[in-house]
């Protein structure tokens, strides 16, 4: 397990964001591999707060806005196709 430590030799700096690592660890599980090819699954688990605004938060916000626009467009296209089918079948 890894816990957050605060070092006096590395004080906070102005204009920099310091994230917090609350707790991290590894989860290792052996696989049912053959004796000549043993293996395992390794999972790194962390609970952390990167603090500040990251570039990725902007990417995700843009992605979700884009997907909402696509969904609205597809709904409108679907409604138009249904209207055309209803008009043609009459």
Walk me through what this model shows:
- The chain has one helix at residues 55-89; strands spanning 2-3, 20-30, 40-49.
- The termini are far apart.
- The protein has two domains: 1-52, no CATH class; 53-90.
- The model has no long low-confidence stretch (mean pLDDT 79).
- A three-stranded antiparallel β-sheet has the order 1-2-3, with no helix packed on it.
- It has 90 residues and is an alpha+beta fold.
Q: What amount of the residues lies in strands?
A: 25-35%
Oligomer: single chain
The count of domains is 2
User: Any low-confidence stretches, pLDDT <50, length ≥5?
Assistant: none
Topology:
Elements: E1 2-3, E2 20-30, E3 40-49, H1 55-89
Antiparallel strand pairs: 1-2, 2-3
Supply database-style keywords:
90 residues; alpha+beta
Summed up:
This protein is of the alpha+beta class and 90 residues long. Helix content is 39%, strand content 26%.
């Amino acid at each position: 397990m890894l816990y957050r430590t605060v070092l006096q030799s590395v004080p906070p700096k102005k204009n920099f964001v310091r994230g917090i690592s609350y707790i991290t660890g590894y989860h290792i599980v052996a696989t049912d591999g053959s004796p000549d090819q043993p293996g395992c699954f390794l999972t790194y688990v962390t609970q952390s707060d990167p603090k500040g605004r990251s570039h990725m938060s902007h990417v995700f916000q843009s992605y979700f806005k884009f997907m909402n626009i696509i969904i609205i467009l597809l709904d409108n296209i679907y409604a138009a196709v249904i209207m055309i089918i209803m008009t043609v079948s009459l």
